[in-house]
Amino acid sequence: MFVSSIGQDSHRFESQDSLKPLILGGVVISGCPGLSGNSDADVLLHAITNAISGISGVNILGKVSDELCLKEGITDSRGYLSEALKTLKGYRIVHVSISIEARRPHLADHILSIRSSVAGLLSLQIDHVGLTATTGEGLTSFGKGDGIQALVIITAEKIN
């Protein structure tokens, strides 16, 4: 049996003079300010974490991530994803499809490294991680350059 789940996350950019790095899928992207949030605000990993919560029924972003971030000082979103993966008892992720909406940065040169990073984090072959990026023709605040939005669909297989 297979199940699918959708996850979404979005964050505004920090100010242009911020020293916070932009991180997408665990990859540092230079030339653009970081995203606003208590953590590294990695919208892509947050969206994946939310999609996993849709399968497991255990919400990580919110109470669990706040405790990790604010009480334990863990701001790396890979830690939140790791917690979410622990809740997938009886399921194995077999494919992830990611869509990013942002006017900036231009992501074409980073797609392979982001796919590789996500594949490693989810123990998948890179060909089971799809990633597309769009400006959305400037119709939303993301397409106008105010922040980044990530949408994710995860397919998982029941293993028990």
Q: How would you describe this structure in keywords?
A:
160 residues, alpha+beta, 60s Ribosomal Protein L30, Chain: A, 4-stranded mixed sheet, two-stranded antiparallel sheet, 4 helices, 32% strand, globular
Structure write-up:
- The protein has 160 residues and is α+β, with helices and mostly antiparallel strands.
- It has one domain (2-158): 2-Layer Sandwich (60s Ribosomal Protein L30, Chain: A), CATH 3.30.1330.
- It contains 4 helices and 6 strands; from the N terminus they run E-E-E-H-H-H-E-H-E-E.
- It has helices at 43-56, 63-71, 77-86, 111-122; strands spanning 2-12, 21-24, 27-33, 91-101, 129-134, 147-158.
- The strands form 2 sheets. A 4-stranded mixed beta sheet has the order 1-6-4-5. A two-stranded antiparallel ribbon has the order 2-3.
- A hairpin with a 2-residue loop joins strand 2 (21-24) and strand 3 (27-33).
- Helix 1 packs parallel to helix 3 (77-86).
- The longest helix has 14 residues, at 43-56.
Mean pLDDT: 94
Q: How many strands appear in the DSSP assignment? A: 6
| CATH homologous superfamily label | 2-C-methyl-D-erythritol 2,4-cyclodiphosphate synthase
What letter string, H or E per element, gives the SSE order? EEEHHHEHEE
With strands numbered from the N-terminus, the spatial order across the biggest sheet is 1-6-4-5
Total number of helices:
4
CATH class: Alpha Beta
User: Which strand-content bin applies to the residues?
Assistant: 25-35%
CATH topology: 60s Ribosomal Protein L30, Chain: A
* Shape category: globular
Distance between the termini: 10 Å
Low-confidence stretches: none
Radius of gyration: 15 Å
Number of structural domains: 1
CATH level-two architecture: 2-Layer Sandwich
> What is the share of helical residues?
25-40%
By secondary-structure content and strand pairing, the structural class works out as alpha+beta
Main beta-sheet strand count, sense and barrel state: 4 strands, mixed
